[in-house]
Amino acid sequence: MRLLPAVDMVLKLDQSEELIRMYGYGTVRSAARSVLAQMREEFREISSEETAWVLREETVPRIRREIEKNAESGFVRVLNGTGIILHTGLGRAPYGQKSLHMAETAAAGYTNLEYDLEKGTRGNRCARLEQLLCRITGAEAAFAVNNNAGAVLLALRVVAEGGEAVVSRGELVEIGGGFRIPEVMELSGAKLREVGTTNRTRPSDYEAAVGPETKAVMKVHTSNYRIVGFTESVTVKTLSQLCAEKEIPLLVDLGSGMFIDLKPYGFPQEPTVQETVQDGADIVCFSGDKLLGGPQAGIIVGKKRYVEKIRKHPLSRALRIDKVNAAALEGVLLDYLDCKKDLYEVPVLRMLTMSAETVRERAESLARQLCSPYVRVTVEPCMSRAGGGAMPGVDIPSWSVCIEPENVSAELLGKRLRQMRVPVISVVRDNRVWLDMRTFELDMAGELVCAFRDGTLAGPIETAEEERAQK
Ligand SMILES: *Cc1c(COP(=O)(O)O)cnc(C)c1O
After folding, report:
1. CB neighbour list of residue 57: distance below 8 Å, 6 or more residues apart
2. DSSP annotation of 59
């Protein structure tokens, strides 16, 4: 194996020069590294003459093919070293095995998405999802659309169009990507009737606001910020009694819906979907890909009379869930139904509840492997976050592998990490590169380890472009 050339040597070949000009140094280095790793496997027993031949004839063309193969796809797998579990920029929740398998089956061929296999006729896209959602949440009926922003828009449109919807001033949230509750209400055709103040809203405020024009009361779970101090808000239970008396529906936007109480794992109380249903909410909307840990989806559960109306509204056709997401959603719901067996089938839950001690062991294991003469590697405590606008202000104690490069700045090392074939997203802080091992997939670290060992990743500055980036 020693007879194979080092990455450095390959990059200095004349034939590599053209590739570097075309694709940039980082890309070529990353591809060279991966090709050489493959070749080491293939040419374990080889004579030196053959090595020379292989080097000349085979390496660079293979690097070119490797680059071209990757250049075709804009979406690539990345490794998340940020410690933000639901990183919206990195696609929020990764699928679990069951979701992955079911999504692949649905995508790869035809599927009984809207086909009743028994009757041989057109079926209902959400029938199976409805069964599972009702079993998990105890709701009478359920429906799923493309995402939660769509679910809230649709539900409001159906129950409150042309009338007023009453909302507390403390719950007029904006979430990422310009989704503001007041604007969504306007889009839905409902008139916003604000009650209370930013920090305090009482039952009497709602009572005074509900009049002949009122078509619904809406409660929004303020999932991405927290109002602390002198505060008061009205519970779902109290609001549902008020709504029942006035014969109007109570719509709850839970944002990041949860089926499991994470208090035993040291997290603050978050209302679960089951509790919200039990406390009498008529319609509950939540996301599929936040703390639930499934695919992008907007899930609606609640009373049959409202869910039926929602299902039949023309807007639900415009917001419908696609077959791959529907299949993946079924997968994660099955994981929850089986969860007494193993909570950890859902990657988001696995990451959220992984003990700091386990994270530390993972960090120590990677740190040992990253040793190289160019870097100082330590294991340091840090804080992970749920992200995705969920569990604001909740710090999750965690551990990072901390890399301090000697020849280059931490910024440049961070940039080189992003240029890898499987890009690594790190946090650059205090002139060090931090990799939070709560969100980092250790079993995909092979290429990273090789790149540190052969010195190319943290080695000296190589190009004028890097020289500029360093400054
Ligand atoms: C995240 C969130 C939404 C939107 O959910 P998406 O699935 O991202 O469309 C709506 N309301 C609240 C309160 C949220 O936190």
Report:
1. none
2. I
Which residue has a Cα nearest atom 15 of ligand 1?
255
pLDDT score of 131: 97
Q: What is the pLDDT of residue 71?
A: 67
Q: What is the pTM of this model?
A: 0.85
Residue whose token pair is 């809203």:
201
State the amino acid at position 354 in one-letter form: M
Index of the ligand 1 atom closest to the CA of residue 221: 13
Torsion angle in degrees (nearest 10) through CA of 232, 234, 237, 242: 150
177 alpha carbon to ligand 1 midpoint, in Å? 10
Cβ atoms of 250 and 198 closer than 8 Å = no
Q: Is the CB of 316 under 6 A from ligand 1?
A: no
Determine phi and psi for 217, rounding to 5 degrees: -110, 135
| CA dihedral of residues 73, 75, 81, 84 (deg, nearest 10) | 180
Mean pLDDT computed over every residue of the chain: 89
Is the CB of residue 310 below 6 angstroms from any atom belonging to ligand 1? no
H helix runs in 286-398, sequence order: 304-312, 314-318, 323-337, 347-353, 356-369
From the CA of 287, how far away is ligand 1's center (Å)?
Answer: 6
| 152 Cβ inside 6 Å of ligand 1 | yes
Half-sphere exposure of 79 (CA within 13 A, CB side): 26
CA of 78 to the centre of ligand 1 (A): 24
Distance of CA 308 to CAs 104, 142, 155, 304, 320, Å?
30, 9, 11, 6, 15
Atom 11 in ligand 1: residue holding the nearest Cα: 255
